[in-house]
Amino acid sequence: MIVVVSHAGDAHATAVVDRLASWGREAYLLDYGRFGRDLTLTLDHGDPGRPAVRVADAAGVTDLTDATAVWWRRPQLVDVGAVLDDDARGFAYGEWHAALGGLHELLACPWMNPPPLDAAASHKPTQLAVARELGLRVPATLMTSDPAEARAFVDRVGVGSTVYKIFAATERVWRETRRLHPADLAQLDAVRLAPVIFQELVPARADLRVTVVGERLFPMEIDTTGTGADVDFRLHLARARTSAADLPDDVADRLRALMKRFGLVYGAVDLRLTPEGEHVFLEVNPAGEFLFAEHGADLPITEAVAGWLAAPG
Known about the structure:
Elements: E1 2-5, H1 11-22, E2 27-30, E3 40-44, E4 52-57, E5 60-63, E6 69-72, H2 86-106, E7 111-112, H3 115-121, H4 124-133, E8 141-144, H5 147-157, E9 162-165, E10 178-179, E11 196-200, E12 206-213, E13 216-223, E14 241-244, H6 249-262, E15 266-273, E16 279-285, H7 291-297, H8 301-310
Parallel strand pairs: 1-2, 1-6, 6-7
Antiparallel strand pairs: 3-4, 4-5, 8-11, 9-10, 9-11, 12-13, 12-15, 13-14, 15-16
Helix pairs in contact: 1-8
GO biological process, one term: SOS response
Protein name: MvdD-like pre-ATP grasp domain-containing protein
Domain MvdD-like pre-ATP grasp: 1-114
């Protein structure tokens, strides 16, 4: 059995599960958001040979013990809303966190991606440091909660040449990368409340989304010329011109080295291609979306993900 940690509304998980089913491979969609509601978890150490991992709902019991691969795709928060007392709710969530950590260890099979490595690789400060160390160009960047530091960076780079963005999006809070405007300078004191990423705006001939699955790279070029999206291609992706792209061998090798350094099997890398033809690293998302790249550039990414899960390595 292949386990996919996500939820029923995740089109990426559904596409991969359906592809696996078409190959006759059993996949179980494990939604952590159902724990505390209609799904139970059992970690059974009664057999001295090997601990068992079981989940159960109204449809019956599913044994996950012999899972052959796990895709850490879109884990949801356990639902502890039925616990009304704040202290008890925190306690319940902590107990679930500990139990699920044990589940991760007991499913002793290849993971795409191992949760601890996935979490570490999600840290943008580390990403930029590693990318630079491996020879990739990264933009001038400042991550700060100090208004004075922020103003000094903006003075150095220039107001119109500075963008700002968040460290991590959530399902409830998402913000695109934005260009800093003169009117925003009055708001810089607000960075005391939460750190902000400030970065030089890299002029681009095109953006690149490179989806990495194991050793395979699937690059898509995104040309947003004339769409008004010179900062964040996601805002006008439907109007952009997209196509499969080629990467220079040295850039491809460095991206593979980046993935190996972080221990990732899957990652969605964002690059900017400058007018001079230089590839600039922006970030890697260990659980980034790929269907838009598959459709926009006719890239077989669903097949690659399902293929790795069916035969890891």
